[in-house]
Amino acid sequence: MASAFVNLRALPLASLVYFTLSFGAWAEDLTIVGTGDGIEMLQAVATAYNEGGLAHVTVPPSIGSGGAVAAVGSERQKLGRVARPLTAAEKGQGLVEVPLTRIPSAIFVHRGIGVNDLSSAQVTAIFAGTIDNWNAVGGPDLKIRVVRREDTDSTLAVLRSSMPGWRDLVLTSRSKTATTTQDAVETVRQNPGAIGFGPFSPALAADLTVLSIDGHAPSNPAYPSAVTLALIYKDNTRDATAADFLAFATSDRAKRLLEERGGAPLRP
């Protein structure tokens, strides 16, 4: 289907007047709330869209996938962003999901540790607390500081479903719980010896070491864990501006932007 995206700034004045009268404003604000997974990706897509879309789109800090479901489900927002599938009950409330890209789940550590690759068994033991010093896996004599996420976190759910040893893993009680992806990244960055997890982004490598697992980097097709980033909406609040952004977000241009920032193709 051809994109409904229209470059308003390239239109003559008469056409601009028509669009203004038709949609109420030349640049309506459209806020897309939700997960922190892939936030930099969607912000890049929003920036490109804002060059000439029907609305000015913003992608604010994370309120989680559950926050997006609540906001769109209650019709307080037209669009939301999620990193987990909608449940049957949520679909029954009229929510619709539009998958955009896959985001590999990354295990990352403080830059000073000097470890670049771990086996899946070593990662499991670290997050279980049975390995508590980096010298046990080839690193320095330094206490391991585990940073985890809440039990409902989308990346944790994907790790449990796909990473060997994680399905029934009891995370160590000697850990700090981060409430958002940004919090997890910042906590690991600031604390020597820290290890955490979250959605993969090439930007992580600027401040952290992103581990290969069993010899596979997150961008490798053999790397097992990934979440699917999707937009959600309800039919009765999917107006012209929401539809226009959905069309752009699934366009070839948006796909290129997502892939440049670490997104992987959707599975058939």
Automatic annotation (TrEMBL):
Pfam family, one: PBP_like_2
Domain PBP as annotated: residue spans: 29-253
Identification of the protein by name: PstS family phosphate ABC transporter substrate-binding protein
SUPFAM superfamilies according to UniProt: Periplasmic binding protein-like II (SSF53850)
Keywords: Signal
Signal peptide (UniProt feature, chain positions): 1-27
